[in-house]
Amino acid sequence: MPARLLALLLACVLPVATLADKRPTLNVYTHPSFASEWGPGPAVKTAFEAHCNCTLNYVVLDSGGDILQRLRLEGEHSKADVVLGLDTGTMEAARQTGLLASHDIPLQGLALPVDWSDDLFVPYDWGYFAFVYDTEQLPQPPASFEDLLAAPEDLKIIIQDPRTSTPGLGLLLWMRHIYGDQAAEKWAQLNKRILATTKSWSDGYFSLFMNGEAPMILSYSTSPAYHMAIDKTDRYQAAAFREGHYLQVEVAARVRSSGQPELGRTFLQFILTRDFQRHIPLKNVMYPVIELGEELPEVFSRLIKPTETRYFEPATVAEHRRAWLDEWLDAMTR
Amino acid sequence: MPESIRSSTPRHPDAPFSNPGWQLWPGLLLASLLLILAGGGLGALFWQAELPRVAVLWENRYLRNVLSFTLWQATLSVALSLLLALPVARALARQPCFPGRSLLLRLMELSLVVPTIVAVSGVVGVYGRQGWLTTLVNDWAPALSWNLYGINGIVLTHVFFNAPLAARILLQTLENVPQPQWRIASQLGLSSGWVWRALEWPALRPVLPGIAALIFTLCFTSFAIIMTLGGGPAATTLEVAIYQSLRFDFDFGRAALLATVQLLICGSVWWLASRRGMTHALVPGRQVAEQVPRKDGSGLRGLWDRLLLLTFTLFLIAPLAAVALRGLPGLVSTLTQSGSGGRLWDATLLSLAIAIPAGASSVLAALLVLASNGSTQKGIPGQISATAAYLPLMVPPLVLGTGLFLLLRPQLGVTSEGLILVGLINSIMALPFVLQMLRGPLRGLDIASIHQADQLGILGWYRWRWLHWPRMRRPFALAMAYATGLSLGDFGVIALFGSPEEPTIPVLLYQQLGSYQMAAAAGTGLWLITVLLAVFALFNLLGRPPATAHLREPEHA
């Protein structure tokens, strides 16, 4: 028992063992899809370390929400130098913590569908939310939200919960952007189409969609790129909706309390170079934020091209998120 | 070592750990530590936030719905799990020679520790819209119009997880009924109804409230199952609402309020259960080697038993088979590729390195808690240690983690020291299960043996070694297997503390899921199940008494 207590105490109190390495370490808080073996993380680390004379260290937290949460909890004592993996849904909340520092990097000429001139956040990739469908089960997907709402009874979709998942929140904002104050009504209609509202994208994609439970799932317009390029199958495609698609931009920022502001800034600059961006298309399965030209994989030319970009300013999202969520809950549980 | 030492007993100072203090204090200290952890975690949230309005609980329609739905699905799941577990446990006890019995037992052990996402994928593969059973039902009995999504799926999956656990503990209880009693029942030719009234019910009654409370708490705090199969936000548990408040709204006050409600409800269920005799000793008994033939297990009854067990086996094996079928191609290609096979192996080693110590410390902690429980019986310290051990089930890990983070803020590292913490928290989370497995057998020693031991001065370590250990061996191994298995399959805790660069098996699984590696993920899921099965088989082997010439062991649990 005393040994157990001691172990607990040691584990809690012992300062983190510092690396014997003399080179400075840049701590980046990120999420698993970036840092994992299959994500862009390892390749980015190699590329950055080749120039920076430093060690790039990923601290992997469960999701973008967790990164923000951890940052809040740690406050001024955070070990993070850079956070990477917040998005347009969470960045305003992150800004309001006052824990982030401005980047002073010119952001002109980015390959984004919207103008980007944020002083805190550097975008590192972007994509559209879309419904991915199984062409074998559903040869003729709905071509708009209106079609989806009017689809026959047996067309079922899988979505994610906006309370727990980024794409889930994306769909909420998408509907809101299209329908405004009528969104609640449309949600009540959509409810008849919904087979499951899962906690995370993975739960829905792995347990339900890949088991053939429903022919459509809320995902990204870029998802088919992975299936086409890596899985070598054209079976899964994104349905283009006439009303346009909602934009998600993933961002990185420097942490104000960081002891290495210059190194952090160098990393943020590195994000906007080819050495970083070339790993985005197939490893993060999103669009790069600069023109890659020839280096953009061929499958990306076969993706849907939304006619209209649906997008709320992050400040607007932060202001209304709670009210819109409550409205959604009300519509779905009535 | 739970029994109090009579004051008239001559003290033998040379027996290690024979001081009564050894029974009481370590367990009590542990229990207090748990109380402080839970209280501290929750308290830190309240302290950080302004106090929420309690009235929101009944004024807000959504929260009212959440609360009533949570209660409803948990109660239904408990009832159905027990309704299935009771006949299965009785049939298993009646049929010690049922072919494939030991496979069925391993399956029963496995079902609780399979990670949710893997199990749900298996359940969907069988009962989902495209599941093979659904297809069969639709062909043969279309009028049934079975639909997995909604309360059906939630309860079905909860039963899949919990009925085997309940049946496993009930079976262990039945097997501890002394053989002479079975022999008398057999000689009298008692029918199964009479055996139930005279032997089985009296033996099972004391453990049922505890099992019910355990399942209730597990279902009450269920999260991913509810969200994946519930169909929509109309099916939401308090745990989901807590997660939302903490993670998305940063509303610490509301999270703490909801967590308190959860704690109060589950806490009162446990309190009720403990008043209903959870701490009663089981029917005392001494082990007699020979196996008594069960007359009530033959004929038509025997046929019925076999049918029931076969159906139950299919119920458990079908989703796992779906997982295996789906995962096999991915696993084969992972294992045959040089890089990825090594990665899986590393993950397995790391998982075991966390899970086995976690399992061992969980079992040790359970023994200490039980000892202090027994030595104080009715006093307040006993009550504290009886309840505190179940706290880890009732306080959402996210609340606990966030609260502790607020308390320890500047010191908490996210590097490999975190792994020790993960192991410790895993062992604490397994404590409630381990307690259920060890309580009965530890209390099962008859008064006569205890008196004799007291008079002979067999105390402390020696009492443990010579009186308890021989009968504890098997429950001990089972408890160890469960605790290790729970830690092996854990994703929540390790994700909370920031996953290490080297992933454990579940972390690897989630990494693959997040990177579109669906086939590889299915393979990893299958691998995880294989490792879990191996762990259960190994501990079962270790739990067998050493072969002695005159001891012929039946095919036992």
TrEMBL record, chain A:
Top-level division of the source organism's lineage: Bacteria
GO cellular component: outer membrane-bounded periplasmic space
GO biological process, one term: thiamine transport
Entry-linked Pfam families: SBP_bac_6
NCBIfam families registered for this protein in UniProt: sfuA (TIGR01254), thiB (TIGR01276)
Family: Belongs to the bacterial solute-binding protein 1 family.
Coiled coil: none
SUPFAM superfamilies in alphabetical order: Periplasmic binding protein-like II
GO MF term set: thiamine binding; thiamine pyrophosphate binding
Cellular location(s): Periplasm
Organism name: Marinobacter profundi
Signal peptide residue numbers: 1-20
InterPro entries (UniProt xref): ThiB, ThiB-like
Protein name stated in the entry: Thiamine ABC transporter substrate binding subunit
Keywords on record: Periplasm, Signal, Transport
